[in-house]
Every structure is written in structure tokens, then in C-alpha cells.
From TrEMBL:
Keywords: Membrane, Transmembrane, Transmembrane helix
Classification lineage: Archaea, Methanobacteriati, Methanobacteriota, Stenosarchaea group, Halobacteria
Keyword flag Transmembrane: yes
Source organism: Natrinema pellirubrum (strain DSM 15624 / CIP 106293 / JCM 10476 / NCIMB 786 / 157)
InterPro entries listed in its UniProt record: DUF420
Domain of life: Archaea
Protein name: Membrane protein
Length: 187
């Protein structure tokens, strides 16, 4: 399964990371005009945070399944679980960016200023920081796996970086659910 030239994994990781983060920051900063995406009914826009919370919960499960599978030597199951996790993440991100673009930026916190300052914003900051750190790590481990036969992957940093990426990914998805609950359920 050799899709990516071996010597280009770092370069491709860098390019994909920069492009992905540029799109995320442009959408979050309201720099992408709403007219550049198709219109959707308001109920669809309103449903996206809940759908993304569900996607996050499912992704937590698929990451855990993938982690457990590789610890048991089930490489095929690990691959399916982790590719499913990445697919869920891509779906989450597409929906999130669509909503940001349509709304012109992130939602304001509707709760008390004290909760916003001491609970919501710190959790959101950690969630965002981990998500930013995860993007290049995820690209790197996926490209490493895609560019080598299965027998060669243990000789790479795939497992070491993958453990870090999966750990941060789990925390980021979990905090994302907490942020959703604070933003859309509690307040």
C-alpha cells in the first residue's frame, strides 16, 4: 500500500498541516465569506454542534478500539479503527468549518462572565491547542503508514508518535464535548 513517497512524508505533513490550519483559522476569523458555501436551512446549522458532539463521542470510541487493537496485534482492525477515527475527525471539521463560515465566526458564550472566564475559555483554549497540535501528528502517522508496507511500520516512529497523537486526540475530543455542553446545553 505505497501511496506516498517515503522521502516526502515530512514535507507532505507540513504542507497538509499548513493548508488545514490556514483554512481553520480563516473560517474561525470570519475570513471566508458565507456566500462561498451552499446555504442550508437554519435547523441544519443549529443541529451541527449536537451532531459534532455525537461524532466526537463516536471518535473517542473508535480511537479506543484502534488503540486496543494494536496492543493485541490486530493490525487490520487497528487500521480500520484509526482510518474511521480520521474520517470522523474530517467530517467533524467539515461541519464545524461550514457552521463557522455561515455564522461568520464562533458563537459567543451565553453564560455568566465568571464561568466564561474561569471555566469555558480555559477548556476551549486547551481543546483548541490540542486540536492544533494533533493535526500535524495525525497527518504524519497516517502518511507514514500509507507510505510503507505493514512489516516496515514498526521500524518507523509511527507507534511512538501515534501514541502521543491518540492521547491528545482523545483529550481534545473529550474537551470538545464539554465545550459543547457548556455552550449549547447548560447555557
Amino acid at each position: 500500500m505505497e501511496y506516498v513517497p517515503r522521502e516526502r512524508v515530512r514535507l507532505l505533513t507540513g504542507v497538509l498541516s499548513v493548508v488545514s490550519l490556514a483554512v481553520v483559522f480563516a473560517a474561525a476569523g470570519g475570513r471566508i465569506p458565507a456566500s462561498s458555501v451552499p446555504a442550508a436551512p437554519e435547523w441544519v446549522i443549529d443541529a451541527i454542534p449536537a451532531v459534532n458532539a455525537i461524532i466526537s463521542a463516536v471518535a473517542i470510541g473508535t480511537i479506543a478500539v484502534g488503540w486496543r487493537a494494536i496492543r493485541r496485534g490486530a493490525i487490520g482492525r487497528h487500521r480500520v479503527a484509526m482510518l474511521s477515527s480520521f474520517g470522523l475527525f474530517a467530517t467533524f471539521l467539515a461541519l464545524y468549518l461550514y457552521r463557522l463560515t455561515v455564522m461568520g465566526g464562533p458563537s459567543d458564550f451565553p453564560g455568566p462572565a465568571t464561568i466564561e472566564q474561569f471555566v469555558y475559555l480555559p477548556l476551549l483554549a486547551i481543546h483548541i491547542l490540542l486540536a492544533i497540535v494533533c493535526i500535524p501528528l495525525l497527518y504524519y502517522v497516517l502518511l507514514l503508514a500509507a507510505s510503507r508496507p505493514v512489516a516496515e511500520i514498526p521500524a518507523t516512529s509511527h507507534a511512538r508518535i501515534g501514541r502521543v497523537a491518540a492521547s491528545l486526540w482523545l483529550v481534545s475530543f473529550s474537551l470538545g464535548i464539554v465545550v459543547f455542553v457548556l455552550l449549547h446545553v447548560v447555557y
